[in-house]
Amino acid sequence: MTMIFGIPIQAFLGQLLVGLINGSFYAMLSLGLAVIFGLLRVINFAHGAQYMFGAFVGYLLLTYLGIGYWPALILAPLVVGIFGMVVERLALSKLYSIDPLYGLLFTFGLAQVIEGIFRYYYGVSGQPYSAPVQLGGGVNLGFMFLPVYRGWVVVASLIVCLGTWILIEKTRLGSYLRAATENPTLVQAFGVNVPLLLTLTYGLGSALAGFAGILAAPVYQVSPLMGSDLIIVVFAVVVVGGMGSILGAIVTGYMLGLAEGLTKVFYPEASNLVVFVIMAVVLLVRPAGLFGRDA
User: What are phi and psi for residue 98, nearest 5 degrees?
Assistant: First the structure.
């Protein structure tokens, strides 16, 4: 049997795949957080609840309306994004001019409300959500068996992350968004609707969380606790990448997912701590994060 560092190659590559899948979700969720913080300067503690909300939208569409996975992959982010825009317009927009702590407290409270509603109706047990037939089964790569849906998760995550980075960094709309955060008065003077841009930005970040949620539903059971179980790790990913850095969120998400997977191979007891150990080391060496800009 082929060995890598004294470990069977199947076990090594299997954990690497698990790390890559977890990294895909870390990247998408931290990307949404980075978009919202980078452009709105809001620490969105409701992001985990929005991720859970996206998974439940898919589950409810299937259970009560018979709408399957593929339409839900579009509808779930849309519903969560619209919900986010309503929240931003009615409440969050009133907090921009005061201490950012109030935005954090508001989103933390919002997360508790959303999670509490779903816990009241569904308890804490997970609800099953099946992968579509087209993505069932697996592919024998010779050295390991790759489930097709897991491969789809990685591909879809890469496409969404790259598309979002291009939108923010390489398009005119993205340049308007970045300019609106630096000097909203000047951008408004050029006829750009800055409040609408900010609303769309929060909606985009929320939609990314919703997309990650529906993508995760067939991998993990749909549960009211799925967001709260993940959000602390995702915040650590954002800090390591650099608060507000779009590229940092993407790269660090995959990198820390792989680091977590490899730790499960060599030292399983530390797999739940490795992300936070890396965060502590990075902050000691580079307080702004790997891709952050020094103040």
Answer: -115, -175
Q: What is the pLDDT of residue 50?
A: 96
Cβ proximity of 163 and 35 under 8 Å: no
Residues 200, 82 contacting (CB under 8 angstroms): no
The model scores a pTM over 0.85:
yes
Return all residues near 9 (Cβ < 8 A) that are at least 6 apart.
Answer: 1, 2, 3, 143, 144
**What is d(CA 160, CA 271) in angstroms, rounded to the nearest whole number?**
27
For residues 271 and 263, give the distance between their C-alpha atoms in angstroms, rounded to a whole number: 5
Is residue 109 within 8 Å of 116, Cβ to Cβ? no
pLDDT of residue 143: 64
Residue 117: exposure state from Cβ atoms within 10 A (0-12, 13-18, ≥19): middle
